[in-house]
Each structure stands twice: as C-alpha cells, then as structure tokens.
Amino acid sequence: GQNIDQPTEMTATEGAIVQINCTYQTSGFNGLFWYQQHAGEAPTFLSYNVLDGLEEKGRFSSFLSRSKGYSYLLLKELQMKDSASYLCAPLDSNYQLIWGAGTKLIIKP
Amino acid sequence: DAGVTQSPTHLIKTRGQQVTLRCSPKSGHDTVSWYQQALGQGPQFIFQYYEEEERQRGNFPDRFSGHQFPNYSSELNVNALLLGDSALYLCASSSGQSEQYFGPGTRLTVT
Description:
- The complex is a heterodimer of chains A (109) and B (111).
- Chain A has 109 residues and is mainly β.
- Chain A is 0% helix and 53% strand.
- Chain A starts with a strand and ends with a strand.
- In chain B, the strands form 2 sheets. In chain B, strands 2, 4, 5, 6, 9, 10 and 11 form a 7-stranded mixed β-sheet that branches.
C-alpha cells in the first residue's frame, strides 16, 4: 500500500531551526511536494523535489533521498507566522499526490 | 492574475440533499483536482479532470461526481449527503502534472 509517515506535532522556538521528517512508500515515484497549511485555510505550495539532494528557497529548504524513501523540510529563523501544518506529498506512478496527515508545528516566543 | 477560486465559501445542507461546489482554476491551468479534507487530516483525493474528462479517481463512492467545462472550470456534485460528508472541499489546479495550487476551499456542513 501507499503510506506517508510524519510526526504528528513538533514545537520550536522563534528564531531557531526545525527539521520536519517524512518517510514514504508509494507505487512508483515522480517527485515529492511540501505544502504549508494554516488552520482553516487551503494548503500552499512550498517546494518540489524530484532528484536527490537539497533544494533551498529562502528560509525553507527541502531534501530528498529516493533510495531511502525519505525527505525533510528545514525551516530556519523561525517566525511566529510559521506556526502551521506541514504536509509531505509524494507523487505516485499515476501522478497522483499521496497525502499524509501532516505535522503541526507550534512556534513559541 | 486571479488564483484558484471556489464557491460557495460555506454551505449547510441536511442529510439526503444534494450539493454542487464550483471551482475556477488559475489562469493557464488545464487540470483540476478535488480533495476532501476532514479536520486534522490530510486531503483525500476525490478525482481529477483534464480535457473535460475524469482522468483519475480516488476511493470515493459514485455519489461523488464531477464535471469540467471547456473553460477548464469544474464542479463537484455530491448526492444523498451523509453526516460524514461534512468537511473542507478543496479544489486544486495545475498545468499538466506540475505543482498544484489550491483554492480557499468550501466548508460543507451536513446536519
């Protein structure tokens, strides 16, 4: 079957760095997306990885290891507005996004 | 450039009724996907439309149906509503299989 595994909840301090891990099992693989979702709002696109390695975009970076079925999202210089859920979503062989429940990130002052 | 729009924003229906939700994709996008998201859960894929046809379908009953129009806008129809259909319904558009952009969603409450 297809499966996504992320921590349910994480807590970090404003100004710090946090890494959100994701392991996945899919039927085929065509890349992996990370989305941010604030409570009551729609998900917004953060990053896309299709090749192994690190993709950096401002304060956010995303890493992929296809052989390990593993990805992480790294958030630097945390701000209070970064409090949200972070969803890891790989693309399977049918180009269908497979979603987990996401990681709720709580930022404390 | 308008992003993905959805209507209505909120909707309250009673069990057994039918509902139609609407979505207009981002300009330049030809593919529309629909998702159901329960509180505290990730989105669940309902189906995807491309060139006015259903290209893929998730594990949802036939009560859930859809349509895509020549201008790429789309509708989601749900018949014989159940209490368990209460959720946030998200529409996402993309150009082919590129990243999906989500609309604000329609919050459906079934009583």
